[in-house]
Structures are given as C-alpha cells and as structure tokens.
Give the backbone structure.
Amino acid sequence: MELTMLYYIIPSLIMFCCGVYGFITRKNMIAILISLELMLNAVDINFVVFNRFLFPGQMEGMFFTLFAIAIAAAETALAIAIIINLFRVAKNIDVEDVNEMKF
Amino acid sequence: MDYSQFLAMKQEIGLLVIFLFVFFYDAFMPKKSQGALAGITTMLFGVFTLYGFFCPCLNGACATDAFAGMYNTSAIVVAIKNILNIGVFIVLIQSMKWANSEDQVIRRGEFYELLLVTLFGMYLMISARHFLLFVIGLEAASLPLAAMVAFDKKRVESHEAAIKYILTAVFSSAVFLMGLSFVYALTGSLYFDAIAAKIAAEQGVMLIVAVAFVIAGIGFKLSLVPFHLWTADVYQGAPTSVTSYLSVISKGAAAFAFLVIMAQVFGTVYSQVWEWMLYALIILTITIGNLFAIRQRNMKRFLAFSSVSQAGYIMLGVIAMTATGVSSLMYYILVYIFSNLAAFGVIQAIENNTGMVSMDDYKGLYKTNPRLSFTMMLAMFSLAGIPPFAGFFSKFFIFTGAIEQGSIAIYVLVLIALINTIISLYYYLLVVKAMFIHKDECKIANFKSACSERVAMWICVAGIIALGIVSCVYNSLLDLTNGTSILANLF
C-alpha cells in the first residue's frame, strides 16, 4: 500500500477539529491547553507533509515547523505559569468559576 | 555572511540596546540606584524616539533588505515605527507613577523589559517580508503582553484577564498558522512577493479558506467583531498602564501589519477574495462595538468597546487599498494614540489616587478636578470626531480614502460608518454629561496628580488640539505615499 498525502492530511485535520472542539467544551484550563497543543501540532504536521509531498525540492516547511514547535513550547510554558499563579490566588482552575468579569 | 545587512535594521538594534541596558541595570545595579530605572528608561526611549525622526532610512538613504529579503524597511515603514514610538513614549511617562508605587517596585524592571520586547516583536511584524519572521514577531508581541496583563499579582481579575488573553491568543495563532499552511500548500513559498505572484495566476476555494483563516488570526489581535470577546475582560482586568498599551500600541501595530499583509500578499486578489470578507467584518465591528459600549458603566470596559468600534474605522483604511487610504490610516492611528492615551491618562490618575473606575464615580468631576475633566472631555470629543479636534480630521481623511476606491458598495459602507459615528457620539457624551452636568454629587475629592501623569496628559492634549490644525503632519504622511499606484511596492 502506498501512503499518499491524504493519509497524513486527514488525521491532521481531525486533530485540528478535535482541538477546536476541546477548546470550546472543556472546563479545566489544563485540558484547554492540551486542546490548543493539539491544534498547533496539527499545523506542524500539515507543514511537514505539504513540504514532503508537494515541494520535495526545498526545506521551507520543515524549518517553519521547527520554529513553530519552539513557539508552541513558549506559549505553553507561559500559559501554565499564569494558570499556576491563578490557582494560588483563586484556588481553582475551572473556567466556570473564574468569572469575576462578565459582559 | 554579509554583516552589513544588519545596518538595515537600525531601529530594531537601537531598541535591543535599550532593552539590554534596562535588563543589566535591573539585574546588577545596587538597590539604592534602582529607583532611577523608570526615569532612565523613559529618557532613553525619548532619545530613541527622536532618533527615529533623523534616521537616514526616512529619506530612503539606507540599505533596505536583510536576511535574503525576509526583512525589509523603507521610508514608510520607518514612519510607521515612529508613530508607534511616540505612543510608547507617552505610555512610559504615564506609567511612571504606577511602576514606582509600592506594590510594583519589586517587579518594575520586568515591566519595562517585557514592554520593550513586545515593541520589538511589533517592529518585526511590520518589517517582515516572510511569514516565518512575521510569526516570530507576532508571538514576541503577544506572549510577553500576557505576562504584563497578569502583573497585579494580588488581584484575581488580573490573572483572570491574563488567562483569557493567553488562551485566545494561542487559539488565534493556531488558526492563523493553519491558514498559513494552506497558503504554503498552494504556493510552495512563504515569501510575501512569491505568494502574491503565485496566487495572482489562479484562485480557488482553498485560497478563500486560507485567507479567511489568516484574517481571523490577525483579527483576534485587532479585536474585529466575531473575534472581540476577549477585549473587554482583558482591558478591565489588566493594570491600567498595560491596558493603555494594549489598546493603542498593540492594536496600532496589528493594524499596520494587517495592512502590509493585505497589500503585499493578498493585494493581487483584492476584489475576488477578501474585499467582501472585510466589508462584512467592518460593518459588524463598528456596529456591535458601538451597541455594547452604550451599556458599559466601568470606564475601562467602556473604552474597550469604544476601541473595538475604532478598529472598524481603522479597517476602512485597509479596505480602501489606495495610497490615500494608507496615509489616512497612519494619520488615524496617530490621532487615536493621542486621544485614547489622554482618556487612559485621566482614568489612571483617578485610579491611582482614589481607586475608582466606574462612570458613576465621575459625577461632578468638573467641580473638584476641572483640569482632569477638561482633558477627558477633549479626549471624548476627539474620539467621537467633533471638529476642530484631531479626531474629526482623522475620520474625515479615512472616509475620503475609502471613497476614493470608487465602488458603490464602499459608498454604502462609508454611509454606515457615518451613521455609527453619530451613535457613538451618544455614549462618548455620557461621560461628559456625568462630569459636567451632575454638579451636586461629587464622589472624587480634589487631588493633585503626579508630575509625570500631568506631563503625559499635556502632551496628549497638545496632540489632540494641534494635530488637526497643523496640516503639515498629514501632508508629510501623504508625501510618503504619493505617486504610488501599486500599493504592494509601497512597503
């Protein structure tokens, strides 16, 4: 069986949609963060696969992925730091209880 | 490697030098000389701002490319950065008292470091001609801002705002990157000009999806309407100095970057792909921003929704896609910086002295603090666009720039924007009414605001009054764009 581009693109799109779904429905902030990671990783897969199958002569997509991974790590580190701080002040990281400000 | 290409990025390097100086001063100087940090940073940044006006690049007399065309600068890019610098300088003066207050003093250095780094990211966003550099700039501009929003360690609201900001920012950048991966699949390059050349030849559904994702990603930063939900909460929860930075500099830089991307990358498919998208976004942004602003009682939330609707007006300069549109957009943001910072200056002075931020607390302010209420009144008049203040002229020019595009649809759009200007007058005047009409119930006692706050407010007031009347400001911006028929060559 030959692996074509579709075998990679469809899982990555499903991953992205799972991420969006999780971002909207999850109540725990850590779970939301995991959903965001899913979305970012789906993008990384996309870039690598497009580079590998559509433009095999260059490396642009691969390099972009490397940088995107580093940026995603920075984002996660910062988000976790803020969540920890929030937990110290509010003793809670459930999004439904963090609602001091509305409308 | 040719190191002389670094000379193209003079402003970035200058900013980095200031950042390193602040960083080492904060880390290594003895405790008794730490107190001068705020003053030194502000002064250094003032010198840097001045330098921008004498930068040789402003006359087109310097290298323009660096890193194989990934980075580009030109006279108009330097002018854009100068506009941002002016805003940051005012923000720095305004925040001096807050940064030196007892709660913040231990983290004062970090505030300035984070602020300078975000500005560096914004520079990269504007100068990038390759999407890799652009994404790095975008993240460098938005991640430290989340840390700045969480600066008030003891207030739950501050942390809540920060978490809302970081989660939506990451979500939006994921969506943006997804769109980018489609663009890459279509064109095989991430250089702006290569993409533009490729998509001009053929357009399909895939391109429309990609552009929609890209607009959504940057729209989050600009708080255009379906993506504006974070704005009010973050503005309310963040410390007021950070809010003023977010609302003018961050938004202004995002608007400029949006303009550059739309002109350079997707400029060739203007009418086929994204004119109608932006058209719908502008109508939604202006109208919904206005309607929600009417019911706000907290001053910071109120200004948040006002800035949402102002973002709609700013987008009129992008949808115009003419040279006049570009210069009027720059002028609009310059004026917006002065008027919004004047309003935030007053809010900050009152919050620092009394802790009050509700509109009801402002009743009778004219009786106790006439100068503050006068400044606030000028800011509100300028934001609403009442002549002879600068806000009127900026709105006038941005409408003119949009109309120059010529289609009937744009005329209708400008008409809708005009009607919305009248609606916005209502809620801006609510503040003026609270300050001037209710004379018998004064909640805020007379107080003397700090010297730095007064200086910042005087600068803003001078800007609001002078920018409209001194026509050479707009003329010099117009000169930068004059004579270009293809917008993509401008930047």
